[in-house]
Design brief:
Blueprint (H helix, E strand, L loop, with lengths): L1 E5 L9 E6 L6 E12 L6 E8 L6 E8 L2 E8 L6 E6 L4 E2 L13 E9 L3 E11 L1
Antiparallel strand pairs: 1-2, 2-10, 3-9, 4-7, 4-10, 5-6, 5-9, 6-8
Length: 132
Amino acid sequence: MALSLDSRHADGEGHALRAAHDPGTPGYSGIVRTLPTAQDWGGARNLRLWARPDGTEGRSLTVQFVAAGLYWEKEVSLTGTDNVTVNVPLADFTNLPWATKGLLDLTHITQLSFYFNGQAGTTWIDSITATD
């Protein structure tokens, strides 16, 4: 996994995260970001992000977060090479099979992760927002 900032492929002004990834043997590679302070997404219904896939066949993105110590994730398809706004309803995130079970508490988000599934390639991500 090679990460960099890219101003040519961004959502508006500024920089997007450019992730050059090779899932290899496990079938995925990822980025884990522990937040410096917990975020309160309690008033949100969706997680929105801007993405630009590179057109690689079979690409998907798993978005994962930790809420009040519990892991939640949702896989979304990324196809083509066009910029796309991805809206994922927070109610669609599921508790991971290997993780501690519990209720989704969006008032204490401490970690956000992205896992790239499928073939090696490059994906750009920008403008990540918990929103209505």
